[in-house]
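Subject: complex prediction, re-run

Hi both,

The earlier run crashed halfway through, so I resubmitted it with identical inputs.
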Amino acid sequence: MKKLVLGAVIAASSFAYTINGTGASFPYPVYKQWIKSYYGKTGNKVNYTATGSGTGIKEIVARHVNFGGSDKPLTPAVLKKAKLYQFPTVVGGIVFGYNVPGANNLKLSEAAIQGIVLGTIQYWDNPVIVKYNPNAKLPHKKIIFVHRSDKSGTTFNFTYYLSKMSNIWRKNYGARKLINWPTDAQGRSVAGKGNFGVSAAIKTNEYSIGYVDYADAKKNGLKMATVQGKDGKFYAPVPANFAKGAAYAGFDPKKDFYKIIAYPKKGYPVIASTFILLPKEKVNSDKKVTAFFDYAYKNGDAAASKLGYIPLPASVKKQIRKYWAEKGIK
Amino acid sequence: MEALFRKVSSFSATTILILLSAIFVVLFIYAKPAIKEFGFNFITDPRWDVSVTLKNKTAAQKTDNTANSAVANVGNNQAQQNMDSDAIPQDSEDIDIPQDNDDIAISQDDDLGIAQDDDLGKSNTKTVYGGLIPIVGTVLSTILAMFFAVPIAMGISVFLAEVAPSFISKPVGMAIELLAAIPSIIYGMWGLFYFGPLVAKTFGGSSVSLLVAGMVLAVMIIPFMASLTRDSMNTTPNVLKESAYAMGATKFEVIKDVIFPYAKKGIIGSIILALGRALGETMAVAFVIGGVFSFPDKLTDPTVSIPVVLANSFAESSGMSLNALFYLALILFVISFAIISFAKFYFLREKK
Amino acid sequence: MRLVINKIVLLLSTISALIGLGFLFWILVTLTVKGIGAIDLHIFTHDLVNNGLRNLLVGQFVLALIAVIVGVPIGMIAGIYLQEYSFGNKYAEFIRNLSDVMMSAPSIVIGTFVYAVIVNPVGHQNGWAGAIALAIMMIPIVVRTTDDMLGLVPRELREAGVAIGAPKYKVIVNIIIKAAKVGIMTGILLAFARIVGETAPLLFTSGNSQYFTLNLNEVFPSLTVAIYNLATMPDENLVKIAWAGAFILTLFVLIINLFGRYLIKDKK
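This time it finished cleanly. Structure:
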């Protein structure tokens, strides 16, 4: 019996393959868990190196890897030009981490957020902030705004939210991976490298506030603000509310799932998705990649949630599988 | 055999020449579009990744050197433009924001690194890159680092070579060399979490700043200077030292007047090595210098340096922004060439 | 008075040594405290895919070894050439300057260069590219230290060699290098220490593999890239592994240091 099992294992492992991916660092912890689980179950090897969304796109366009990861989705036109397929994998929340001694349960209205990022609200005890935080004893201290020093998909998704939420922001700054923030010129900025750097900066600078992804904020024990959503209600920065927002994502497989899901109709407004890019012509390689993610969609939700990420709604997963089948890469 | 040895060593040296030239050439090729676009203005322009609207082509070339007003001006111009036309492409990598709340935006992506030629005619904005702030940051952080590191390293090497008995100097020497082995990202994290806040507490200001970066850099380059200076000092023939002592010189005087002059070349060499490291250090500085694209008004303000900009933007850049990064790298080469040549010239010339 | 100055200077030098040691101690303690907690048998017997370090340690060693085999001879021989065979001429001066400037090249630039000339033609990331990138980073350091240390050897030794009729290469190999060997070894060890902690040259060239492999033609595991990826992740398990890896890395360099010093010890 043992010989049979051994033989089967050897036979199976001789068919084990390796696929390589690179790209966004945002989903790295989740992918790593999925990879570990997949390897344990099937013996197939998946490699993913976190180098950044831009590199992910570059490397898949150059066909140096089997799949690329990007926090910023490509439009159908660009996908067509580069001959790529695209689908989302997981959702995450971007929260406002803050460090104001004595103030807990901060509630930020859209007006307050707009003022903080535009630099028009400079002190913590500004009436616009105090309006929804009457009991917080906010001090007359300058607001230190923490943002990213490096080009990032998180910044892109955050500024996309700002653009949809604020006309002034949209007209003057738009959605970009790297911004010259208004608070820079006012000397009230600190920049951190990576979500990690931003969390560290918030932790070590009093009276600061910054945007950072939920998983990092949670890990570093940052206080997170409750934020006003598109429907006017205030949503706490918890996975349940991220998931609520994700339900209104509006992914469209006909448009290769091109959708930046920030500022949904309901739910916590600052959410972001991350995507996988596949080369059209490499059908066999694509099938291996989709097999991996199919496994992840079936078995990886618990791991993702544990790490602070939001699994895709079942309806979206169904759409993705159908997309794969249509393209012949299931 | 002799001829063979000679040929091999010459070949080796030439290989290096080819290698270095190749690197330079590759850099230059990638930088060329940016050089063509911005010319020498790049060195004095403090704006990075700022969109300007073109009234006509020449107006856009005029550099506006006030960093603070640049952003405000751009904002105003853009607001006016936006009134009439559809969403303005900001950077070739961005997605336009829909005017209505739910429409899909029209992308002007340059994600593929392919120039969108058909758009150039219609677009009336361009993105300006200028390297003044990272250049200043590089020079300042390096000077700071050398300022802290040179005295301490010299002190350490004097200690190791002349002061300490050998049972202390051997392990201590090895311990100092160990500092060189610590991965730069560890320096970055240590600086970010432990050292930076301490500096902020003592000197005020931000926990990530020019000062913190200079000091972390200093710690990183001390082992290079200390070990090599110690070894250079140890090459001084005993006979020279002994004759000085015999004439009644104190230890300090022997060090100052006999050992240092003898070992000068090695000491300068070690300083140059350290200088090179300080100029090019990427990871550690990226974590602790603050990453804000503005001039540091005081030492404890955050800023950027050239390797930091490279580290922060490289992975995500394509198109002109990538070319601008390579232009910066080229400038770094020129700066380090200038500083190193100057240092060599000044310290190694024969004083007669 | 002179004695007072003497005492002050010696005191200052001891204080600087203490400052240097102080920083070292601080960083090493931080490293140890954070790293040793995660060290157990598991990380030595499992690969990164299973939250272990085994494949990374082996991979890093392989890359460093190749870098040394390629970089040290080229660097040393070039240093010898600069010092012994072309002393003073313009060509040598030019190479010296170029080499020094190379030393300040941000590691990202080296990585990009190797990406352009090796990864692009090959079509994917591979271990050879990473090793070459590390070798390129070592060379300028080895060149400069060899050059300088040879230069510090007293003229008399050279003249003595020539006086007994030895051909130049014999003089160099048997006499001069022997005299400078301590310094040259320091240079090699420093260069090695420098590259063993580098991430950027490997990030775009050899990437990182989660699995145990010795195939240099594919994505290759390296400890530093893993540390870079893991240390800043919001998953505490991954962060712990990163610190453990950094700790082991530093330990590894210490051992190599001891080994290197032992190699050149004067055996009586």
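Chain C is about 75% helix and 0% strand.

- K.
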